[in-house]
Amino acid sequence: MANNQYTPPKVWQWQAGNGGKFANINRPESGATHDKTLPQGKHPLQLYSLATPNGVKVTILLEELIEVGIQDAEYDAYLIDIMEGEQFSSGFVEINPNSKIPALLDTSTSPTTPVFESGAILLYLAEKFNCFIPQNANDRAKCLSWLFWQMGSGPALGGGFGHFYAYAPEPLEYPINRFTMEVKRQLDLLNKHLANNKYMCGDTYTIADMAIWPWYGVLVRGDLYDAAEFLAVDEYPHLKAWADRIFERPAVQRGRRVNRSWGDESEQLHERHSADDFN
């Protein structure tokens, strides 16, 4: 139990900068803070994002689509620096009123089609190109179930465990224990499922894998929150084998490098104007 017990005020007041390393990427109100037009390139798809786990989901899918020969999946990618508040520009808010990355603009349609939320973008692209999503009703239901499982479960890993374990101003036992328990349950669930499945939907690699891997696959490989030892990830051998299997895919390697702004300096790519640069 913490020595200095927090007593919530009768009415909460926002203080800029409270809440740890990533506190400034959020505000208690929505909408644009400044006017700025987003750049646009020559390809059908315009991506405004950052190489966070949610951003990597989309660039992995785009690179996988290009690898199988779908030319209409070529894209221009622009980095949105969330630490500098670029997600609150008028141009970005026009595409995504929620001011979160990733955001996609499909200029091949008339009018152009904005899509936001990583799961929605994965589903939109998979359906648009009829690729990486099963067509059989039963298998499609499984794929979408796991896709939306990640969207619902991910906040406990990122905003819960990751925040309090890695980014909060000070370590607090109660939230770390609470979210560690839930993340361990999720890892156990995935491990048991993957004991009998090569991918999340049997033998078929789908957008469900692409959604889950940047969070849970990267976590058990030791590249997220520096928490592999703390979470005892060796307890999940089937999940680790799946994580390694996907990591070895060339399109995954390329997708991880797009719009990267932190980590290994040799991997940084602040603005990728064209998928042609990597293919």
UniProtKB/TrEMBL annotation:
It comes from the Bacteria. PROSITE patterns: GST_CTER, GST_NTER. Residues 136-265 form the GST C-terminal domain. Pfam families: GST_C, GST_N. Residues 267-279 have a biased composition (Basic and acidic residues). Residues 46-133 form the GST N-terminal domain. Residues 258-279 are annotated as: Disordered. NCBIfam families: PRK11752.1. Belongs to the GST superfamily. This is Glutathione-dependent disulfide-bond oxidoreductase. It comes from Pseudoalteromonas spongiae. The lineage of its organism: Bacteria, Pseudomonadati, Pseudomonadota, Gammaproteobacteria, Alteromonadales.
